[in-house]
């Protein structure tokens, strides 16, 4: 049976392959050897490598639903600050975290639960502010050191500093439509190795769903991932 809207290839860059290995190792709590990584041409190949390292079961009444268990833990941690909140999977994160800056809430959830809670994203105003800051500083450097190699060298040195400032102090928020259920699902995926270790194993289906979540940011295409989905596009 042909499934509609299946991604044929993630179409990643060569540099992404290293980042994918790091992301998978962190999420699943495993170490992938160079030979294992080089043999992975499809998402299914990578899935089988992970299954070789992480204990899996097809079904088990002894293992809780990972997303549901993660939701309950996040709810517990949130209620340490807001004990009266009626928190459900459909609850918008902005309903308790506000709309301005979610860094403190992220730190609280991550540090108190011990789970790998996904970072909120830099806001557009913060990124624009960072570019503006760099533009002013670079213009000042060129004006001070001259329109020659020295001036442009100093201006280039300021770029990492500006990036560090924005990354460290820029305002960060979760998407306005993101729910607590969404956050629980993603947190469970990025914490799967830790959760699987606590329960002794993980359901095969949940491991696959977690892998899809971890790989999704690397894909240039939307759609469903299949075991046959390749990492690199076919060479023409």
From TrEMBL:
SUPFAM superfamilies: ACP-like. Residues 1-54 form the Carrier domain. The keyword Cell inner membrane does not apply. Keywords: Membrane, Transmembrane, Transmembrane helix. InterPro entries: ACP-like_sf, PP-bd_ACP. The chain crosses the membrane at residues 122-143, 149-170. This is Acyl carrier protein. It comes from Enterovirga aerilata.
């Amino acid at each position: 049976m042909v499934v509609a809207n299946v991604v044929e290839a993630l179409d990643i860059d060569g540099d992404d392959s290293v980042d994918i290995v790091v992301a998978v190792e962190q999420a699943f709590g495993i170490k992938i050897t160079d030979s294992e990584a080089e043999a992975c041409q499809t998402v299914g190949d990578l899935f089988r490598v992970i299954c070789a390292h992480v204990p899996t079961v097809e079904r088990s009444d002894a293992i809780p639903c990972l997303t549901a268990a993660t939701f309950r833990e996040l709810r517990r941690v949130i209620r340490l600050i807001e004990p009266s909140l009626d928190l459900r999977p459909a609850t918008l994160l902005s309903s308790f975290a506000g709309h301005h800056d979610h860094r403190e809430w992220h730190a609280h959830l991550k540090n108190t639960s011990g789970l790998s809670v996904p970072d909120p994203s830099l806001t557009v105003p913060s990124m624009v502010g960072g570019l503006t800051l760099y533009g002013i500083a670079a213009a000042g450097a060129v004006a001070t050191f001259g329109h020659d190699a020295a001036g442009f060298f100093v201006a280039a040195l300021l770029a990492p500093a500006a990036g560090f400032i924005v990354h460290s102090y820029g305002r960060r928020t979760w998407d306005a439509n993101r729910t607590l259920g969404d956050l629980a699902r993603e947190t469970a995926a990025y914490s799967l190795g830790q959760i699987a270790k606590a329960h002794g194993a993980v359901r095969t289906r949940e491991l696959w769903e977690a892998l899809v979540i971890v790989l999704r940011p690397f894909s240039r295409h939307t759609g469903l991932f299949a075991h046959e989905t390749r990492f690199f596009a076919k060479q023409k």
